[in-house]
Amino acid sequence: MKSPCGLSKVKVIGKSEFPEEVTKHAVRELFITTAFNPEFGQQNKKIKKWGENLRVYIKNTEHVELIAEFERVSTEINALSSDITIERVVDEQQANFIIFLSSHHEYAKYRPNVKQYLDGNWGFFWTNRNRNSEIVKGNMHVDVIRCEDINCQKHLLREELTQALGMMNDSRKHKNSIFYSQWTCQPSYCELDKEVIKLFLSSEIKAGMNLSEVKQVLEWD
Prior knowledge:
It contains seven helices and eight strands. By secondary structure, it is of the alpha/beta class. α1 (24-36) crosses α6 and α2 (64-80) packs parallel to α5 (150-163). The two termini are 26 Å apart.
């Protein structure tokens, strides 16, 4: 049996076209898992999503390979999104999202309230939301000291940036997925990831929606 991250013929399901192995059930299951169950913090059962474009400032600019990876990942996300875009800014004062490529000690100085989570995590993100569940600002961290493998660093950057868009939880299924909960250095999105990201970043999905509202707008049975 092929992985749900495989690619074959295309069939129409509702308003979208999915590669055949990427079933409606798989997309629906991963969407609900990632969008409605935050990995850390309060379990708010509503869509958390950016209400404006991400303006990203990167600290520690000496890490040129990771900066190139950020450009690659943001280009992929922008191609999948019909809602928001990600752009890099060179002035930190203009940013609403900051990326740290550093030790966890350096990141903890900036975000001391998450220090308790950092000992066991080489990648991490944090977002702030308004009353409407719109994400208004955030930051993320890739630990380039404890994680020495550049491919694993790239994976962490891709994973944390993707989850900071609002798909905040990991999944125990789909080993080729960027959302897989176990340690991996998966370097790219699988087809299932792409469909879930495309769906989440569509104009149909709004911040503050509950699961019933999502099912209604997407015409899920």
